[in-house]
Design a protein that fits this description.
alpha/beta; 7-stranded parallel β-sheet
Length: 281
């Protein structure tokens, strides 16, 4: 069987993911919203598509993008930071109508651990598993939960939800923005980060296992994974250590308010997929 993947969103994570998939024998159709990026995709042997989702329509050749693929990876951010942001749920609903017309049988949706609430820390932080009820505090988190449920409840395809923690990489780390800042909140809040390399490794492992059963008609493999590195130091410990390692000024944490947070448990990734995390955050 041809290992054909449609990857919606070739951004910071999606582009290196597509490259890795191709290195591992997959054929990849990749989407971007930027005309300037089409050539970059093509140069990396990714079949390029210019696709933009809206609440009531999709611009671009969505039919061609989905054609001949049994697996769709959705890796696009909700983009809900401004008060005028369009509904992410409505955009995905519009996409679902096209998925239902296509040959797609498996959907992998990249979500976020922001679907879980942060709780006040008294002694030991709350540990969160995939069985923990979602209770998001942000608009982005609320819409992610709606999208997850929308996809999981659709009988026309199987869905896997992958909830990543904070994304970091060689070119992306929050200490660069926190260095030297004062009154930084949540000194005792635990870190829940995952390195780009592990994000890609986990998705690759899921897709390899997905394709083993891609022609199965059963709908029992709808599953949710948390994906966070197993190290959970406090924010103060972690950011002070990173600042020192990078020769940056230490951030100064606020001490007069209670910290909030949670520890994301990713043991299911390790047991179900037999995945071993490669990068310590």
């Amino acid at each position: 069987m041809t290992k054909q993947i449609s990857l919606l969103g070739c951004g910071w994570l999606g582009l290196p993911l597509a490259k890795t998939l191709i290195e591992n024998g997959f054929s990849v159709k990749g989407s971007t919203t930027s005309m300037n990026k089409l050539l970059i995709l093509e140069e990396n042997k990714i079949e390029p598509f210019l696709i933009s989702l809206f609440e009531d329509k999709i611009e671009g050749d969505i039919t061609g993008f989905l054609k001949n693929s049994e697996v769709l990876v959705i890796d696009i951010p909700p983009g809900l930071r401004s008060s005028t942001s369009a509904s992410f749920v409505a955009k995905i609903q519009t996409l679902v109508t096209q998925i239902e017309k296509s040959e797609i049988k498996k959907v992998l949706f990249v979500s976020s651990t922001s679907v879980y609430e942060d709780v006040e820390i008294f002694s030991t932080p709350l540990e969160v598993t995939e069985e923990t009820p979602t209770n998001p505090e942000t608009e982005s988190g609320k819409q992610l939960v709606e999208v997850e449920n929308l996809l999981l409840s659709n009988p026309n395809f199987n869905t896997i939800i992958l909830r990543f923690g904070g994304l970091i990489g060689e070119d992306r780390h929050p200490i660069k923005y926190l260095a030297g800042k004062e009154n930084v909140e949540n000194p005792d809040g635990p870190i829940n980060f995952i390195h780009q390399e592990d994000c890609i490794g986990i998705i690759l492992e899921i897709l390899e296992q997905l394709l083993d059963s891609a022609r199965s008609d059963n709908k029992t493999d709808k599953i949710i994974f948390n994906a966070v590195a197993p190290q959970h130091p406090t924010r103060e410990e972690y950011y002070h250590k990173k600042a020192k390692n990078m020769n940056l000024p230490l951030p100064i944490f606020a001490k007069n308010t209670a910290s909030k947070g949670k520890i994301i448990n990713s043991a299911k990734i390790e047991t179900v997929l037999s995945y071993i995390f490669k990068k310590e955050v």
